[in-house]
Design brief:
The chain contains six helices and 14 strands. It has helices at about 5-20, 50-60, 75-90, 115-120, 155-165, 195-205; strands at about 25-30, 65, 95-100, 125-130, 135-140, 140-145, 150, 170-175, 210-215, 220-225, 235, 240-245, 265-270, 275-280. It has one domain (about 5-15, about 25-280): Purple Acid Phosphatase, chain A, domain 2, CATH 3.60.21.10. With about 290 residues, it is α/β, with parallel strands linked by helices. The chain binds fe (ii) ion.
């Protein structure tokens, strides 16, 4: 029987957790957007940069890697299968958990997750490590892959509320698209003014989520965002939103962010806190443009 990437990763994580010493912090990696450029460079799978990014991440021996989505250009089964194969080869001992991105689905009006589920696996996963008071909750905030509609359905919010109910001190939320706000206002994320988005911010603030990890934009940036009671937003304080979408996809240069280059991030989790992001960049030149 062929395991999905998620099933394989859960098994690996179980084994690796046993080796942890609760007195020593553990590290994990967050990266996103490894896809090629599709018809533009005839690469429907991953860019050659991804191999270098992933190799560097594996060198850090993280407890696990979170991929924020857009693994491949379009969610055909054969492309997703190829992604899984490459990951299992390069990161053979490291679990990888993937949030679904718009490019991981077929280019259709409606959400279509069959191929993702058959290859990468679970869409709504949770990583729970009680000795470190750690929980990571993955969300799907892609509503229409073709129409580029991002946000939260009521069902998604109910799910999030459930998962946050007894949220431990070190709770993290990971999802694909970023909020349209601050420096990210014009970057095709999700609108922050809808009732659902407002509820999303209320939930993460109420439950003191420590980090929100997003991808989708092919660059690196970080914004602290706080929603006020009247629905307006404030920057520089509040929840730490970390954007890392530099795992090889064609870089986004239009908007100057902290780093418009290939990147991934590393975090350190103790029982009391989460330190990071530590930003990793400069991975050399790929031998092949396409994987
Ligand atoms: Fe995306």
């Amino acid at each position: 029987m062929n395991l999905t990437l998620h099933e394989r990763s859960e098994k690996l994580l179980k084994q690796r957790i046993k080796q942890l010493n609760p007195r020593d912090p553990f590290n994990f990696v967050f990266m996103g957007d490894s896809r090629g450029d599709g018809p533009n460079d005839n690469c429907f799978t991953m860019s050659g940069e991804f191999e270098l990014v992933l190799k560097k991440a594996v060198e850090l021996n993280p407890l696990f890697i979170i991929h924020g989505g857009d693994t491949v250009y379009t969610g055909k089964k054969e492309y997703l299968e190829h992604f899984v194969k490459v990951v299992e080869k390069i990161a053979s001992n490291i679990p990888m958990f993937v949030c679904v991105g718009n490019h991981d689905e077929l280019y259709l009006d409606e959400s279509n997750l069959e191929n993702f589920r058959a290859t990468i696996g679970k869409v709504h996963w949770v990583i729970d490590i009680p000795v470190f008071n750690f929980r990571c909750i993955a969300l799907n905030n892609v509503i229409s892959p073709k129409n580029k509609i991002y946000g939260f359905t009521d069902r998604e919010l109910n799910y999030l509320e459930q998962q946050l109910e007894d949220a431990p001190r070190n709770t993290v939320v990971a999802m694909h698209a970023q909020p349209n706000i601050g420096r990210w206002s014009n970057l095709e994320g999700f609108p922050v003014t809808t009732p659902q988005s407002q509820e999303f911010f209320d939930l993460i603030q109420e439950h003191r989520v420590k980090k929100v990890l997003v991808s989708h934009v092919h660059a690196y940036d970080e914004q602290f965002i706080r929603k006020n009671r009247n629905g307006s937003f404030m920057f520089g304080r509040g929840t730490d939103f970390v954007l890392s979408g530099g795992a090889g996809a064609p870089l986004d240069f239009e908007q100057p962010l902290i780093l418009n280059n290939y990147n991934f991030t590393e975090f350190f989790v103790s029982r009391y806190n989460i330190l990071g992001p530590l930003l990793w960049k400069d991975f050399g030149r790929p031998r092949r443009n396409c994987l």
